[in-house]
Amino acid sequence: MSDLRDAKPWLIYVLLGCSLATNVMLLLARGASDKPDSHAIVQAPIDAAGSAAPVNGSAAATGAVHEAAVQPASGQAVPSTAPTAGWTVLRSKVEQSLARTFQLAGGESGDALASVYTRLFVWDLELRRDLQAGDSIAVVWRHAPDGLPEIAAASLQSEKLGRTVAAYHWQAPGDPFPSYWHLDGTEAPLRLRDGPLAQYEQITSVLKDRPTHKGMDFKTPVGTPVSAPRPGTVTRVNWNWTANGNCVEIRYDDGVLGKFLHLSENRVAEGARVSVGQVIALTGNTGHSTAPHLHYQLNRGEKTIDPLDYHGTIRRSLNAEQIAAMRRDVAGFESMLAEPAVR
To answer: What are phi and psi for residue 323, nearest 5 degrees?
Structure first.
């Protein structure tokens, strides 16, 4: 190649210009690679083995509550860490009432969400009376396959309690159904002492939150055995069938009437004497019922008695190993609840 000094002047200018343009392009590309993308979504994996900090403690039982330990089943596998994909977080300050709050924040799913949410915190607060200005809610939820809302975790920041109460959906070893648990290992819902069902999915109605409803409802599959909670005599069966479906009424020895509605099958006849623990029926979905459940009602004369007061309650608790497993499995949902609200 001949020396550039022998080239024509315009050729030298062209080569210098190309070199300068190339250097400028390289500098711009380097700067772009060093600058963070303001629209990028960074996803970090959840460390299933890591410990999670408690959310300001858990709810304490109110009234005469007894604790019962959950006994592990032999060979029961510990559930794996729950995935958080597909779940969303709803946050809101309480507006007038829980129903109003969920109607405003939850849209079309608001009423159904409020119903499930209420079941988690009605045990420790009179939700129609104890909510205060400044209280706030957070719910991790999604639509279940049946279209109804499913809650994985929820919290209530309560001025009255002076702390945030949180509950997480988790299935304890040996239990046929999941329940909701506080991070300290205590179960969120209370259970009847010597109630009519040994197992059920959840309590869907209590007298405290539905004063026009005279019984306590238990969601449970059709065919679940119903036992007599007290000794007594069967006074009638299958009365007012259109509303009650298959039903049994027992007068306990203390004079209280126990009514068991929407049954699939009766196992006792009028006039029969029953003993504690005797199977008297199987649960169903008969009469005026929109889903399989047991309606359990107590009356003394014309007065309706709250089963929670009549039976007394227990609050189950997990052992240390189960608590560790539960904390590990709900860690992702705990993180979602703890995230600050979007401004």
So the answer is: -60, -45
Question: Residue 107 corresponds to which tokens in the numbers above?
Answer: 């849209």
Per-state percent for the chain, helix, strand, coil, to nearest 5: 25, 30, 45
Q: Let me know if domain 78-190+319-343 sits in CATH 3.10.450.350.
A: yes
The answer to whether residue 328 scores a pLDDT higher than 90 is: yes
pTM above 0.85, yes or no: no
Do 228 and 280 form a contact (C-beta atoms < 8 A)? yes
pLDDT for position 75: 37
- Tell me how far apart the alpha carbons of residues 331 and 156 are, in angstroms, rounded to a whole number: 18
> Residue 313: which residues within 8 A CB-CB, separation 6 or more?
61, 63, 64, 65, 66, 190, 191, 192, 193
What is the reported pLDDT for 133? 83
CATH topology of domain 194-311: Glucose Permease (Domain IIA) (2.70.70)
pLDDT at residue number 240: 96
